[in-house]
Task: structure prediction
Amino acid sequence: MKEKRLWVPLLVAFGAVLLMIILVRHHQHQCLLCINLKAFSPEVIKHFILGFGRWSLIVFIGLYALNTVSLLPPIGVMSLSAGFIFGPVNGTIAIMLGSLLGTTATFFISRLFGAKFVEGMVKGKAKEFQQKLDQNGFKVILFIRLIPLVPWEVVNYASGLSKIKYTDFILATLIGIFPSVLIQTYFTDRLSNFNLKDPTLFVALGAFLLLGAIPAIYLKNKNKKLGQRAS
Result:
């Protein structure tokens, strides 16, 4: 009975991805395989996505979810493209929904197919992190989403192998990534409408730089405290 419940969110996630693939396949002027991965950039993504017209947001969400599961190309490029394409509001919605579907899929892929499959995906990076999740899953996920010290895919797949409940995992994920998603989409939106006389551009830039610096600041303070204890 438990395994049947596990399949429900997994099927929902992959159903959304399948819908996206069907839309791409039947689109008259676009082709998923026509994207040159060597030139993969926010501008390329914007041109491709907007070619789907009213389906653009759905296609982006599906691609984001698929990107989360497949690990390639780097998810950061897709994340930075959302605000550039849709603006801060719809861009945030697109990433949050794409993250919901993608992280749900990776979580249950891991939980259903087990350690050997995950080992092939993350190559031994998950074991230590998995132990921390077993002890205090919600707080660990929330912290690691707010301060991304562990690669995204390792978090997703290790979580599926741990004892954490899916509801704790996904709730901590969505709460944890919301501030960074909002900052990223707002910054790229302002950047796409570049105007040196616009004060919000510099606010967005400052927030974006701070966001990128937070992991380094945390590690520096942590190492400093460890050094003080050792002495």
About this structure: Residues 75-113 form the longest helix (39 residues). The chain is about 80% helix and 0% strand.
